[in-house]
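Lab notebook page, bench 4
Experiment: in silico fold of construct C2
Operator: M.H.
Input chain length: 169 residues
Purpose: comparison with the prior construct
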Amino acid sequence: MADDTPALNEDIEEAILYAKKYLEDLLSFFGLNTDVYATTQDHEVIELNVPSTHLNGFLIGQRGETARALQYTIATALKNQNFVHNRVNVDVADYKKHRAQRLVKTAEEWFHEVRDSGQAKELQPMNAADRRIVHQAASDYGLETESIGEGRDRHIVLKPASGGASEED
C-alpha cells in the first residue's frame, strides 16, 4: 500500500512568507492593509510583527488574547500546509516586547528577594510565554527555576543557585 501522506515542507523561508501573507490577508479583512515584518531568530519560531495602527487594541485584545488567537490560527494554517516550522509569535505594536520588559523588571525584585533570603519563592501562575521569559531572566541572573503544576495552575519556583542547571518548560 502506497503512503499517501504529503511530504513535510522544511523550508523556513517559505514558511515565513506563507505566515506573513496569511496574516496580511487576515488583517485586510478588517480593513487594515499593512506590511507585516516577518523573520526568525532561532530558525524555530516565526516572528510576525504588526506595526502600530489605529487597530492596536482590537488586534492585541484583552491581556493579549486576540494576538494569541492570531498565532494559533496562523500556526494551524502552517500545519495544514505541511510546514515543519509552525511555531508562530505575533506581536502587535511591540506589545509583547514591552510586556516582557515590564515582566523582567518585576521579576528582578523577586530575584533579589530569593538571592537575599536564600529561600525558594513560588510565583503566581502564569502562561507559558511569561514563564519562558522569567526562566530566561532568572537564568541570566544566576538563579535556578522549576515549573510546577498543571494547566492554568502551572507556576514557577525560583531557587537560589546550587551549582546545577535550571529546568525550563
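Observations: The chain has two domains: 12-93, 97-159. The two ends are 40 Å apart (CA to CA).
Next step: discuss at group meeting.
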